[in-house]
Amino acid sequence: MTFMELLIKFPTEKDIVDYYVHIRYGDRPVCNHCGSIKVYQRKNNVKVFDCNDCHNTFSPFAGTIFEKSSTDLRKWMYAIHMFLNGKKGISGLQLQREIGVTYKTAWRMLQQIRLAMGNADNQEFFDTIVEIDETYVGGKPRKSNEHDDNTPKGTGTGAKRGRGTDKTPVVGMVDRNNKKVFARIAMPNGEGKKLTARQLMDILKVVSKQENNNTIMTDEFRGYDPLTKNNFVHLRVDHTKAFSDNNGTHTNNIESFWATLKRGVYGIYHHISIEYMQRYIDEFCFRYNNRDNDMFNLVLKQSVLVG
Length: 307
Ligand SMILES: [Zn+2]
Known about the structure:
The chain contains 10 helices and 8 strands. It is α/β, with parallel strands linked by helices.
């Protein structure tokens, strides 16, 4: 879709407000103060609604990624479209040129879109068999002898794996059954430390209903020891012997996600500060988890950040 085609689909900003209202509220918008459906869109300012019951004035974009933006909504929709359809996303510089905004605005728009991508409900994540692994992202560029994607883990020096380096530890998991991925920075507030058992368990609490007795497959990292104590069925794969045991114990799915993530991060973005690292990880998780879904509408749905 070109920008011209988007303008044919959404000739005015009102068309987008109507489209967005439908996605956010269903049939009718609801007053965010009293809950009444007797609300009316202003003719001269289509982003503003008035409530007939309590005389509240509100915007359907309150509490969303669009809230503080004065950028034309058609530019927003085109930005989302391009970001999702470019296989590698789109850079702030490209977006700036395409829709005619400043670089600062373009950069902020992309960060807001990533924020929506990460705004997913992960409550039902854990299903049956889950592979867990951790990786290390960012920091200094890798030297040519550090092929940590190809070198069997646990061999050679510990530094190969990245544990204890200045990179940022990221814990990730893939559910074998629903093929969903979830990944979190282990320590948003500091770099250069090893992943600890407590950090691992904190991340697991987000996505796991512990009474389910999930089966978890990991490598031999000692940090995973607490899994056994916390009612998980814990199977370990020994990477020094083979990449996969004969009994199906392996972590190949999450490892292949790491490869995609690293290709994306190192290929597109030269440096990501730890402050924004989670948003980029969320972007790649969203793309992986929703490759068969209508990602455009899903981003709009997840653009509501509160309430
Ligand atoms: Zn009201």
